[in-house]
Amino acid sequence: MKIEFDLPDWVDSENLYIISRNELVAYKLPNEPWKIKTVRCKRCGECCKVHPKNGAYYPLKKDGSCIHLENNQCKLGMEKLLACVLGEHTGKEYSRFNCSIEYKG
Ligand code: SF4
Ligand code: SF4
Q1: Ligand 2 geometric centre to CA of 97 (Å)
Q2: What Å distances lie between residue 68 and 28, 61, 73, CA to CA?
Q3: What are 28-76's pLDDT values in tens digits?
Q4: Using the 8-state DSSP alphabet, how is residue 84 labeled?
Q5: How far apart are CA 19 and CA 86, in angstroms?
Q6: Nearest 10 degrees: CA dihedral of 75, 68, 51, 79?
């Protein structure tokens, strides 16, 4: 799918995201090109154990994992925080094992 937008200049310094349901599809950080997801998240839950993206909003368990992580799955489903959806691209950075997601710039 190809889409084109003529966005206002003030968004140049903003973070931009494209989301499908509760999955990040593409994002753009200030002064960087768009990054498009080519390989999807395999929902291993690893990034929610090591560095939960919602750590500033929800309490963590004693082991440091997110309180909403159950059997390696987010039990909030579609109700999970926008912060978790937008932070998906940091999964590779924070997971101890192989994160599946790939973005091309
Ligand atoms: S709310 Fe869900 S997606 Fe967000 S850190 Fe917790 S388990 Fe992970
Ligand atoms: S570590 Fe990567 S593949 Fe696993 S849940 Fe997090 S973003 Fe998805």
Answers
A1: 9
A2: 28, 9, 8
A3: 999 899 999 999 988 888 888 876 665 566 788 888 888 899 999 999 9
A4: H
A5: 8
A6: 60
Atom of ligand 1 lying closest to residue 55 CA: 5
Q: What is the pLDDT of residues 80-90, one digit of tens each?
A: 888 888 888 77
Amino acid at 100: S
Report the pocket of ligand 2 as residue ranges, CB < 6 Å.
Answer: 41-47, 88, 91, 95, 99-101
Looking at residue 83, its amino acid is: A
Token pair in block for residue 103 = 């973005």
Token pair for 80: 């999970």
- pTM here is 0.84
Question: Rounded distance, CA 86 to CA 102, Å?
Answer: 15
Bridge partners, 39 (sequence order)? 102
Q: Are 24 and 86 in contact (CB under 8 A)?
A: yes
Task: List phi, psi (to 5°) of 49.
Answer: -90, -40
Residue 70 tokens read as 């159950």
